Amino acid sequence: MRAVGRSGRVRIWDRLAASDPGLLRLTAGLRTVVAIALTLAVLAALRVPVPELVAGAMAAMVATFAVREKQRGPQAVTLALGLPVALASVALGALLNQRVVAGDLFFVALIFSAVYGRRFGDRGTALGLIGFQIYFLSLFVHATVSTLPTLCGVLCVAFACSATARFVLLPQTPAGTLDRMRRAFRARLAQLMATQAELLDAGPDAVEKVLDDLRTGTARLHETALLVQGRLEDGTSDAAVARLLQRRIADAEIAAERLGLLLLTARSAERTDTLTLHLPGASVPSSGTLPVRDEATDALRRDLGALRLLMLRPAGEAAGTAFAHVRNRLLGYRDEENLPVASPAVQDVFRGLGEAARAALGLRLALDGPQDESDDSPATVRSREELDAEDAAIEVSEEAEREEAEPAGLQRPTTRAAVQVAVGSALAITGGELLSSQRWYWAVLTCWIVFLNTASTGEILVKGYRRLLGTVLGVVAGIGLAALVGPHTWTAFALVLLFIFAMFYTAPLSYTLMSFFVTAMLGLLYTLLNTYSTAVLVLRIEETALGAACGVIAAAVVLPVHTDRRTNDLLVAVLDRLADVTRGAVDQLSGGAGGDLVEQARELDQALADLRAATQPLTHPITPLRSRRNTARYVVALLETCAYHGRSLAATAELLPTHPSIAADPRLRGACGRIVHNIGVIAAHVGDPRSTAEMETGPSIASMLEPGTLRLPRYGRVTDRVLRHLQRLDEAVSGLARPLGVAGGPAAPGR
């Protein structure tokens, strides 16, 4: 029973770790709640009145979530600098509270400075956020000169409690975060492999849902891989170790995705068209059938479960003859050992299992250190030797970082945003005071928030819509909660803590949900301050709508950055990174020096993630232009296909210096020229529609797979794999031409 209970806890923990990589959301929510609860406990012991309790809770929340540095030292410095900023802000708020014109002018200047401070990194962002939010706090609790000493004491308590929660009660080190993110990556791998196993037995009615789950699992694995790779340099003391982990994580991700493609191929009569796998609505080929239930497919089901075990088993339990036997069997498939009698497609899946097992071994060695080698088979010994050789070959090269010209003056993003939000806030103050001379600051807060982490008019519009929707739903909940809580102060504070945790936990997932919890919490705070009424909450909806409208107007009129312009800039960046990865990988596979391909692939993935986020206004359900929405989804999906094949090429090229079964083939270089040229042509047309550059056409790269063209006896299978990636990349790049307005490409659906 104890073992069953422990197994259940492990499964729950793995599911939680997979859904919240590194437990970042959970930690942020718990830390904020603990800081607020500690502040309330101290202030209650000092018998502070309820308005000051509310002020302390809000100050503790701000002091906790504003600090974003990863290292503990910089966090402590920012928190220490934040206290005098907070004291100055609340003092000015108390002094200017009754001076309408002077107070409004100062508020606008403060907002400009806070947004402009983002150009100075995490510390500038944090100090600006603290200054703005504490000034807003002074307006919320109606601070006066007479209450100023008490409020200053409350702020000191709040910052001290925030520091205690951060550094003592819930410490979070980069190494600890990285360790949890590693566990999340393993859990995501295991979830994806469980879905791949379902694909084997899914009937005709269930296969579409399984394929959708497969796409979702693959995308989530990729997101987790990006998060882990982004934290490596902060979580490891050695740059060589960080680079090794990047390589191992990329190996595991690509091996898992390739295994899924091989399983899809085994279900269908022909090789799976990877060009369509990322496209919206793409399904299993119509000729797809279930594999025959024979010894080979039964062994395949067994080995998929064994591979999942290899991925999930903790280091302390990854020992013993049985475990070694499973690992040895899977790794043997890489060397054509014990391949079952089956169709070529099914045999390819077993080879893919061997490659995934090798990636699992490399990941385990990188994360957990040396393992027991006493039960190794010859195939396992060879895999270890390959991995050791790769480790020895990794050298940290201090390459000059790519420098990009940064706009100056008003075109600098931080300057532009500061001017826009200042103008929008001035409009919000004017309109807000016409609605209410007491609650006008809600419009300013909304205007401020819709500009955070947005860079185009479309993004601000979508964020404003989501905030308004969450506010309306939160008002409905707030009315009901206020009636239930009534005069029970500590019940209300308990619910406030619950909503604050939910707010932080759901913030990265849904801005609408976060806004809902914020508004419901405010209804409780108004109840505590004895200022609650249905009219107040309705006024909040009106002020929120006004603030969102002012933000959109300012973004559209003052130094506007249109969504089309931003997405075009990001699209060009993705294409440039794709060309770099393709050129570098093929150059290295042809015998040249390709540079740091893992880092280039990571830059490509990050650029694509930025583009995906920027196209949300174009793909959002409220977008009225259905054809444009379909085109945006189609382009992003094709780019995801391109990125997958680019990562696969980079991963194969990185193996070249040490892998005994891969050799450079100079003839591969000729297969890359047209792809890189066409990527450049598309980028030129996106940057300047008047560009006269033309797409190149020629024989299909697949023709090079014909016998006698480019096949070498010893390295033919690896060369074939590279050529297939290049073929799919060539098709995807050609597919981008027509929807992006470049003549010569095939038509896109939905046009």
Task: Give a quick rundown of the structure.
This protein is mainly alpha-helical and 751 residues long. The chain has helices spanning 2-19, 24-45, 50-65, 72-96, 100-116, 121-140, 148-169, 174-201, 207-235, 239-267, 295-312, 321-332, 344-368, 378-393, 413-435, 441-451, 457-485, 489-506, 511-528, 534-557, 563-589, 597-614, 616-619, 626-655, 673-687, 716-737. The chain is globular.
Helical amount among residues, as a percent range?
A: over 70%
Oligomer: single chain
Tell me the strand percentage band: under 5%
Contiguous uncertain segments of 5+ residues: 1-6, 395-405, 707-716, 745-751
Mean pLDDT: 80
> Count of helical segments?
26
Q: Class by helix and strand content?
A: mainly alpha
Approximate shape: globular
| H and E order | HHHHHHHHHHHHHHHHHHHHHHHHHH
How many β-strand stretches? Answer: 0
Give the distance, in angstroms, between the N- and C-terminal Cα atoms. Answer: 59 Å
Radius of gyration: 29 Å
Main sheet characteristics: none
